[in-house]
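Running this now, will post back.
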Amino acid sequence: MADIIQLLPDHVANQIAAGEVVQRPASVVKELLENAIDAKATDIKLLVKDAGKALIQVMDNGSGMSATDARLCFERHATSKIKSADDLFNIQTKGFRGEALASIAAIAHVELKTRLNHDELGNFIRIEGSEVVEQEFINTPKGSSIAVKNLFYNIPARRNFLKSNTIEMRHIIDEFLRVSLAHPSISFSLYHNDQEVYHLPISNLRQRIVSVFGSKTNEKLVPIKEETEILTLEGFVIKPEFAKKKRGEQFFFVNERFIKSGYLNHAITSAFEGLLPDGSIPSFFLFMNVPPQSIDINIHPTKTEIKFDNEQSIYSIIRSTVKHSLGQYNIAPLLDFERDANLDTPYQYKDKNPTQNPTIEVDRNFNPFKESYSSTNKPSKIDIKQHIDFITFESELSQEKLFLDNQKSQYKTYQIQGKYIISSVKSGVILIHQQYAHERILYEDLFKSTSFNEQPIQQLLFPLKIYFDTIEIELLKSIADEIMNLGIEIQSFTTDAIIISGIPSLIQEDKIVSIFEELIHTFQQDIPMDSFSITDLIIKSMSKNLSIKTGTKLSEKEQEELVNKLFICKEPSISPFGKKTFTTLTLEDFDNYFN
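Update: finished.
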């Protein structure tokens, strides 16, 4: 039998290695920024074009490279940071595998300009698909400039898997912020298509966080600091009242390296127990330093996962430190969130002792069946009816735009646990999920009013200013036209806020902030390419945010109106997000339960 095992050519091996190292343009950004930091740079500039697909360039004022090093750095497993296997357990730098530049050069056109501080001339190297096509001495500033062009030019299948420019740019910004937050002593700048996105001067950690996330962030920060034999912990957590419903700012660094750890995140969440509203997530910027030999950072190609020697001890220290800091700044949970303030002792009586026991008087002549008592003491029917009407009026008022008053009920309904509505039909019963059903109703109503420009707009007496970080502002700018087509009038953008001057009459003003948070969260998951799909995604997000939530009690009339409106929808059986809105249980289904 003929031999069938063969060695792969170098260019093929490099392309396979690139599959682990370079997943998208943001992967290149991460590697190049970390190399600049390892080169002891104090000023780093990142230039990006076409969300990194056309150009990713990093310029630094670091130590630079000699002609030999400039050529050798593009070889596989070439590194200045590892001399022996033992060095893997004492890593002090960012990049150490020696695969990054070789992998990048295998799938892109790369140009490197570099000069040592004491040299008069620097070196220029141009590589295309791992092949050096040009190398010469040039006049260039101290440090290095590396430009990566036409990423995945020789792997079209991989290039086709890249997302829209908005998504790819968001990932680039994520990597840029992770690196810049970990190194406030370095100046960072980011430019996209020749437009400045970030300029972060040298500062301390607090100033760097405020520069990135806006001036309003400063008042939200609670300092964290602890030193033990196992670790040093410092940074900030965001006050509980500013917690977000969706994924907030969660940055955890170990030895100045951003990591992801559900286990350690749980320690922080546990410290906030009793402080956060339901469904809210804490935000934090925490930096932990541990002995390098106590961790293994080589368990994942992107080095964002770390294995700790003493995970349980670290968990306990983080939890107790965060909890202690929250307590120091007078952020403590109430024992009873639902206590009745009317039952509290008045302040003026707090130091008084009772002088006599309270007396209890009993009307021994009370007889509820006596006509005279009933007619003189019990509330009249009119009083009771007014009381009931007042209660139901408040509920109906909040729903008056969602339920029609002139529709006749076709179904007798019952609500189950504030979540489901059950209605009897000829063949059996229909079980309706009230939130999913309402999402469908709102979705079709919003879509119709948008399509026919029927959305009435109410002008706000005072414009509403909502604060966001730079990433979120850039995202909202990219979809501003679609947002305004839905009746939300955007007066202007600032560097850290959006100003709203008008909203659709369907939306209450106090819902606007949560609508935008839901919208940003939705678009951070996925963004379609065409404007129609963007509008559709915005409408879906709004319908989800405005819908009746599980646990909301509905009057019988509201239940019936919800059912009636659901079954005049074009697609009553599924929500805008593909969830079933109802299911039918036939008499045969019931019979089967008892057989």
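The chain has four domains: 10-202, 206-328, 362-399, 413-582. More later if anyone needs it.
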